[in-house]
């Protein structure tokens, strides 16, 4: 463990501030709580929000897994895992089943999570209404009044124009029948996993300075209409490596002659099936 | 002199453990958790109350202590650095030995419901006494919570708090080192 830093990099006062925000976030599922986001030793957009949440939650006994688009071996995941191995001395893993804390960028692991696990999301844009209403002052009012008609109109316009809702990731959800929430840019395929999850889910947006949470066993519904119900879609292929037909797939270009490989985005899930 | 009594032996690790217990308690309403950490709080401060204050309170949080905790004021002020306020309506954390009047505390605003107070109430015992049925986020199936030391009609008082949602108070019940959380999102029924 690197000397000269506090445990898990952040100073204790910052951790207290984040911890207070986290407790309020859990008490109001789906509501965005502002927090004093700190400058971190990596740029915005690389998971500064997720890292700060992880640093405030992490203990010496925790086992940390970090994924980026489902993969343990991409630059972002490797750097963040190494960061906490150095600043907190915690054990890290790539196995979903072994981890107590999983920090994720844009995926929920395929393997069903347990009640003793915490999932920490890196969130670029926490405001689900941002594309419809750029003013934060306005969107705060809309959340206060549960005035989410504009989002339903957006979905309706999609259906009239394309015949279906054209949102394939960051698909807006309603949490605990009250707050409209951005699930972070996870594929819509993952949305059903948010609902009644046994694991606590924490969301950190560093640049936008917001924290929110979904407690375990909480109702999370993807917005839809009775005659146009929400559908979780995936590429209509089996994984080219493990043959899975139930996992979310990445499309990988393999050569310059149009070669394509569809394979599991969750590398641990894929490796586990092939082992 | 309560100032002779120590705070956390290992401030970083003890605060982290206490926070995780509090986070877990908040995520699982009614579930019993234990907070050690500060083994010698000045009476009548319970071990779990002391651990929560050392973990969450600092110079940025107004704190209100019920008159019964007069003997612990110095210790709390010294170890947390939190300013103590005279009016509980101003407090981010309210520590009491009996359930205070909810209408005197901050429930937050519609736009910033997170500005509400967190209420820490020391009760006679958790796991015995009056029984309540809990349901809501964090509970897969309705749970039962038994608490000795809450007033008659607590379920009705809580229903009033629940009706303010997303505004409202979050309640942490403490007995010794035992902690149970009732976030504002939980529904409480007598029985």
List the helices and strands and how they pair.
The complex is a heterodimer of chains A (275) and B (191).
Chain A: H1 12-27, E1 33-34, H2 48-57, E2 63-68, H3 75-87, E3 91-92, E4 101-105, E5 118-122, H4 136-144, H5 149-162, E6 173-175, E7 179-181, H6 191-194, E8 200-205, E9 210-214, E10 220-222, E11 249-253, E12 260-264, H7 267-274
Parallel strand pairs in A: 2-3, 2-4, 4-5, 5-8
Antiparallel strand pairs in A: 1-9, 6-7, 6-10, 8-9, 11-12
Helix pairs in contact in A: 1-2
Chain B: H1 11-27, E1 33-34, H2 47-56, E2 63-65, H3 73-80, E3 93-96, E4 118-122, E5 125-135, E6 143-148, H4 154-162, E7 170-175, E8 178-182, E9 187-190
Parallel strand pairs in B: 2-3, 3-4, 4-7
Antiparallel strand pairs in B: 1-8, 5-6, 5-9, 7-8
Helix pairs in contact in B: 1-2
Can you offer a commentary on this structure?
The complex is a heterodimer of chains A (275) and B (191). Chain A is of the alpha/beta class and 275 residues long. Chain A has helices spanning 12-27, 48-57, 75-87, 136-144, 149-162, 191-194, 267-274, and strands spanning 33-34, 63-68, 91-92, 101-105, 118-122, 173-175, 179-181, 200-205, 210-214, 220-222, 249-253, 260-264. The longest helix of chain A has 16 residues, at 12-27. In chain B, 23% of the residues lie in helices and 24% in strands. In chain B, strands 1-8-7-4-3-2 form a 6-stranded mixed β-sheet. The radius of gyration of chain B is 16 Å and the shape is globular. The longest helix of chain B is centred in the first third of the chain and has 17 residues, at 11-27. Chain B has 4 helices and 9 strands. In chain B, 49% of the residues are buried. Chain B starts with 10 loop residues before the first helix and ends with a strand. The mean pLDDT of chain B is 95. Classes of the chains: A alpha/beta (275), B alpha/beta (191). At the A-B interface, α1, β1 and α4 of A face α1 of B.
Which descriptor suits the 3D outline of chain B? Answer: globular
Strand content of chain A: 15-25%
User: Approximately how much helix is present in the residues of chain B?
Assistant: 10-25%
Characterize the biggest β-sheet of chain B.
Answer: 6 strands, mixed
Report the uncertain regions of chain B.
none
How many angstroms separate the termini of chain A? 32 Å
Shape of chain A: globular
Seen as an oligomer or otherwise, the chain set is heterodimer
